[in-house]
Design goal:
By secondary structure, the chain is of the alpha/beta class. The chain contains 13 helices and eleven strands. The strands form three sheets. Strands 1-2-9-6-5-3-4 form a seven-stranded mixed beta sheet, with helices on both faces. A two-stranded antiparallel ribbon has the order 7-8. A two-stranded antiparallel ribbon has the order 10-11. The termini are far apart. Bound molecules: nicotinamide-adenine-dinucleotide. The site of nicotinamide-adenine-dinucleotide has 30 residues, from helix 2, helix 4, helix 5, strand 8 and helix 6.
Length: about 375
């Protein structure tokens, strides 16, 4: 990749034979061929996207590739979580086989986490592993799901239960694409950005307290810095622990609570994943405060930032929940190991750790003190 003319930030995900670059910048979709063309063994590409993303960004991507004399075929799927299914996976794999895609070819995921997770999984299993490029178009996908190689689909037993680790060969995070994203989706992605500061970088958290509105307002310098710092942190953690045997679990800060709220609200529009994570993070810091692990001031700073930016920081903000219902769902979480619930707690902002010391009794009184019903 010697001929990149557009200005962008670059981060490397260092994984020996599976290393790749993440580029972050304004206008990367319009210039995608500059990055993708040198990677191709033959001038052909296959794009998978959804109809919402296609309306705004597909033509721009196709134009860039076609101007570089690359033949392009595309598949447009229905937007929404329902697309991360066996049915869509079959559809996509059949299509790619009909198109005679070879292992050395490149498949492009253009969209949010749903398209990225599904396409990545199709790439993982097609001919036992095909190359793919992530072009994330939601803030959540740019700072989280497009990086790190977790791919998969949902099944009746739960979310993300069938999948594979399959790293992309390149990630192009075009901050311009975020201008068409609904505000609620933007805020949901911002929750994941707060997470990086809260779990591992105190000064980034402080920066977000000061510049959060500029990030949400998509001010170029602010959004680029926020996406870059988040990707850097995710890249570092993934490089240390690709398969979540240790440190990578810290990225689940707030997620044990979040998954319980998502499960009880039906994984739908009533509560977006990022909204649930925001509330879950506020609660993880409150629990840390109650256990005398972190200061009341730090817990309050986390809730205040979440609330001020327009995300839920209190249970009442999203509805009424029974403490035992929440605990039951938490017991079925993927993060339960040998029957012990693992929580990500914090000693301060920027210093999260994995705890196995939260018993169901303690959890129950905490949830009730936070507003869950008895
Ligand atoms: P999404 O992919 O459903 O996108 C949200 C909505 O925004 C969709 O309707 C989509 O069509 C639309 N959209 C996307 N980009 C747009 C744009 N630029 N302009 C206008 N509309 C646009 O949701 P998401 O929040 O990006 O991803 C959620 C998924 O990500 C979940 O399935 C979750 O499990 C997964 N996830 C995966 C990882 C991972 O490590 N693989 C991490 C976090 C979340």
């Amino acid at each position: 990749m010697t001929d990149i003319k557009i200005s962008s930030e670059k981060i490397k995900v260092a994984l020996e034979g599976r290393s790749y670059d993440i580029f972050i910048g304004d206008g990367l979709i319009e210039n995608a061929a500059q990055f993708i063309s040198p990677m191709l063994e033959r001038p052909r590409c296959w794009i998978i996207t959804d109809s919402d993303v296609a309306t705004h960004h597909l033509e721009t991507l196709i134009n860039s590739l076609e101007q570089a004399k690359i033949d392009v075929a595309h598949k447009i799927l229905r937007p929404g979580e329902g697309t991360k299914s066996f049915a869509s996976l079959g559809l996509v794999c059949d299509w790619l086989l009909e198109e005679k895609v070879e292992r050395s070819d490149i498949i492009i995921a253009l969209g949010g986490g749903v398209i990225g997770d599904l396409t990545g999984f199709a790439a993982a299993i097609l001919k036992r592993g095909t190359r793919f490029v992530q072009i994330p178009t939601t803030l959540l996908a740019q700072v989280d799901s497009s990086v790190g190689g977790k791919t998969g689909i949902n099944v009746t037993h739960g979310k993300n239960l069938i999948g594979a680790f399959h790293q992309p060969d390149l990630v192009l995070a075009d901050t311009r694409a975020l201008s068409t994203l609904p505000r609620r989706q933007l805020l949901a992605g911002f929750a994941e950005i707060i997470k990086y500061g809260a779990l591992g970088d105190n000064s980034f958290f402080k920066w977000l307290e000061k510049n959060g509105d500029d990030v949400i307002g998509l001010k170029p310098e602010a959004i680029t810095h926020a996406v870059k710092r988040s990707c850097e942190m995710k890249a570092e953690i993934v490089a240390r622990d690709e398969r979540e045997a240790g440190d990578r679990a810290l990225l689940n800060l707030g997620h044990t609570f979040a998954h319980a709220f998502e499960a009880l609200t039906g994984y739908g529009d009533r509560l977006l994943h990022g909204e649930a994570v925001a509330l879950g993070m506020a609660m993880a810091f409150n629990l840390s405060r109650d256990l005398n692990l972190c200061s009341a001031e730090d817990a309050s700073r986390v809730s205040t930032l979440i609330d001020r930016i327009g995300l839920p920081a209190y249970i009442e903000a999203i509805g009424r929940f029974n403490a035992d219902d929440l605990i039951n769902v938490m017991g079925q979480d993927k993060k339960v190991v040998a029957g012990t619930m693992r929580f990500i707690l914090a000693r301060q902002i920027g210093e999260a750790f994995i705890s196995k010391d939260v018993t169901p009794n303690l959890l129950r009184s905490f949830l009730i003190s936070e507003g869950a019903t008895e």
